[in-house]
Design brief:
Layout (H helix, E strand, L loop, with lengths): L2 E16 L2 E9 L3 E5 L11 H13 L3 E17 L2 E15 L15 E7 L10 H9 L11 E3 L1
Parallel strand pairs: 1-5, 4-7
Antiparallel strand pairs: 1-2, 2-3, 2-6, 4-5
Organism: Roseibium hamelinense
InterPro entries: NUDIX_hydrolase-like_dom_sf, NUDIX_hydrolase_dom
GO molecular function: catalytic activity
Length: about 150
């Protein structure tokens, strides 16, 4: 049986749509394989969710973002591989945008498994992790009120 990490981690994420494409991080992991995630990450103590999301987007995708509003809260149990544990995480997903001239790029401090930043089309939505992101992308929730879609394993 896998142990659980002792704390619940709060994680802001950016949901950035441009036309029918979603801005994502492309990742390759020796155990988890090839997949895509929303930019964002761990909130530091004393940091607001908005400040954390601005910092994470600069680090991961090299972008200054404009944050609109909270569109989704997801409860996620992430598999961590060293040591093997389940981490309990709350993802706070914000509708956001980048400047019109932004070209996808890696930031100055990308995630260890990140290999690229790109605009993803809906035909690859099944490769988004965690799976709630696939549901959000297909529903184009940028025009909806905040949603809770349930609990997800990554």
């Amino acid at each position: 049986m896998q142990e659980f990490a002792p704390d619940i981690r709060s994680t802001p994420r950016a949901f950035i749509l441009k036309a029918d494409k979603l801005l994502v991080q492309e990742k390759r992991h020796p155990i988890k394989g090839h997949y895509y995630t929303l930019p964002g990450g761990k909130q530091d103590p004393g940091e607001s969710l908005v400040d954390a999301l601005h910092r994470e987007c600069l680090e991961e995708i090299g972008a200054h973002i404009t944050i609109d509003r909270l569109i989704h809260v997801a409860e996620v149990f992430r598999l961590k591989t060293n040591p093997v544990i389940r981490a309990h995480q709350l993802d706070f997903v914000f509708a956001a945008s980048v400047d019109d001239g932004y070209t996808p790029q890696m930031g100055h401090h990308p995630d260890p498994s990140q290999v690229a930043t790109l605009w993803l089309s809906t035909d690859k939505a099944d490769m988004l992790r965690p799976s709630y992101v696939t549901n959000l992308f297909r529903r184009s929730v940028s025009s909806y009120a905040p949603l809770y879609l349930g609990c997800f394993d990554e």
